[in-house]
Amino acid sequence: MSSAASPTQTLAQIRENIARAAKKSGRSASDITLIGAAKSQSIATLQHFIAAGLTNIGDNYLDEALEKRPELAKAGVTWHYIGAIQSNKTKRIAESFDWVHTVDRLKIARRLASERRSEQPLNVCIQLNLDDEDQKAGISEADLPALIEAILELTSLRCRGLMLLPKPRSSESAQRAIFAQARDVLETNRQRFGIELDVLSMGMSGDYEAAILEGSTHIRLGTVLFGARSPR
Ligand SMILES: *Cc1c(COP(=O)(O)O)cnc(C)c1O
Fold it and tell me: DSSP character for 195?
């Protein structure tokens, strides 16, 4: 993305790509939510993008997110937590976000639920790990049903679907294959529980079109939207 492009131009270009991929998958652009992955971006950058029409922002780092929040409070933004969750942060996450995409164990879900004070339930996605990398966050497909079942008991949480953060794949067919697998897991569990799981949070700068082709409803874009990140 050229650094000369304005936020308005960048957003327009990405929305065009989203619309094209959505159409190919038999959907419309309005079925896809674009979340700006804001880690290590300045408040000024975010303000420019919000002014240009960005309405959903995701953050990985709680302290950083809460620092930005007062500056952006009037903007009517929907806030998504997309980072790793430590137990000692659940209270502030439950109080400050509309969505959490990275729930992968019951202990964290229970804490978020008991610490959610808003009348509005907290929207949660369960982070699924289909790459079998032991060290990485996310629950296995085998352990998923038990976690969904437990979360359905927690009335201050609303279980929306799955989040996938796969390791990068270089070919589009390999990208599509892992996203298709996540879509199948969602469908299987939708049928198993007879509930409306309507969200697939998957797709980043390098693979969002492939993700949309396989049914993504929420894409999380950093680099391609805001430009390269400064090292943290
Ligand atoms: C950083 C990040 C993104 C965005 O990554 P890009 O490749 O810069 O688009 C999306 N999701 C999560 C969870 C992230 O940490």
Answer: S
